Amino acid sequence: MEEVAKSRFEQLFQENWDPEDKSLDLENKGVGREELRLLCEMEEFLSVEKLYLSANGLGDAEMAVFANAPAGNLSSLYLNHNKIGDESMEILSASPAVQNLTCLMLEANNVGPKGLSAMAQSRNFQKLEILFLDSNPVGPEGAGILARSSAFPQLHSLHLDSAQVGDEGVLALAGTATLALNKLYLCSNRIGDRGAAALAHSEALKTLNILSVWRNEIRDEGGRALAESKTLVNLERLYMSLNLIEKPMRKAIRASELGQRLKTLVMD
User: Fold this and answer.
1) Secondary structure letter of residue 27 according to DSSP
2) From residue 251, how far is each of 70, 100, 246, 258 by CA, in Å?
3) Can you tell me the distance from the alpha carbon of 40 to that of 67, in angstroms, rounded to the nearest whole number?
4) What percentage of the chain exceeds 70 in pLDDT?
5) DSSP conformation class of 182
6) At residue 5, does pLDDT exceed 90?
7) What is the pLDDT of residues 146-168, one digit of tens each?
8) Of all helices (H) and strands (E), which one includes residue 245?
9) Distance linking the first and last C-alpha atoms of the chain
10) How far is it, in rounded angstroms, from Cα 5 to Cα 3?
């Protein structure tokens, strides 16, 4: 029985392995604990650089198996649209399998402050450059944990769309003393003028070249603060459609020094 399962998985591996890209795409392939165990035991796993495990219903039990994987050469791990919660993140954060990650995709799971705290206390994310936490219950507390942590020295792209961050979470990110972000995505977080002003005046976020605040609750005051920002000097692309900014202010933003300097300004 073991040999049959092993043979089937080896076939699945070969069918979805791209040797040129060194990627293994097992998205929505019915991967569970047994398949993950076999994957971790394969010598070929050490050659995988990009691993797609999206939409497999993976949770705590599956992450406990995957945590036994060797460090290998894995640089990108896609775990979006699974059932990964705080306990899963505690398990994953302690695993050598994540030590070389530069990209971690966790969109559409159930990772909250407790799971982020496990990440923030781990030494295994020193190489992480891109983190997707969209559609997770991050909240203001989780944003604060990320903002205060020194566990992500290489992180430059943070995706927090639909993560319940709110103004309080934005204030925490704007006051970070440890993150040096180039890209920050904050769509659909009920951010208002207070959050927009915090972004506009943040010395910590002066490294940003992309800022996305689509579908929030920013009004004229917040729009004016962004347009008059003296710190967002490196910003090249600003996405702020579907807010509550009136037409005259939108016109003023486009005519501002910031509006004229930007390579991309998306605003309705």
Assistant:
1) T
2) 55, 46, 9, 12
3) 9
4) 99
5) S
6) no
7) 999 999 999 999 999 999 999 99
8) none
9) 60
10) 5
Percent of the chain with pLDDT over 90: 95
Torsion of CA 44, 46, 50, 56, to 10 degrees: 70
Q: Which DSSP category does 24 fall into?
A: E
Asked if residue 135 lies in contact with residue 108, where contact means CB atoms within 8 angstroms, the answer is yes
Instruction: Give how far the C-alpha of residue 158 lies from the chain's centroid of Cα atoms, to the nearest Å.
Output: 5
Classified by CATH at the fold level, domain 138-268 comes out as: 3.80.10
Question: How many C-beta atoms surround the C-beta of residue 243 within 10 A?
Answer: 21
d(CA 124, CA 47): 19
- Residue 262 backbone zone (phi > 0: left; psi -120 to 50: alpha; other: beta): beta
Q: Which residues of 123-149 are buried (b: 16+ CB within 10 A; e: fewer)?
A: ebbebbbbbbbbbbbbbbbbbbbbbeb
pTM over cut 0.85: yes
**Counting runs of H as helices and runs of E as strands, what totals does the chain give?**
11, 11
Rg for the chain (alpha carbons), in Å?
20
Query: At 266, is the secondary structure helix, strand, or coil?
Result: strand
Q: Give whichever of 5-19, 58-72, 188-202 has the largest mean pLDDT.
A: 188-202
Separation between Cα atoms, residue 224 and residue 227, nearest integer Å: 5
Tell me whether strands 264-266 and 237-239 are parallel, antiparallel or unpaired.
parallel
Looking at every residue in the chain, the average pLDDT score rounds to: 97
Q: What residues does each domain of the chain span? A: 138-268
Nearest to 212 by CA among 231, 235, 228: 235
Give the pLDDT band of residue 1 (cuts 50, 70, 90): low
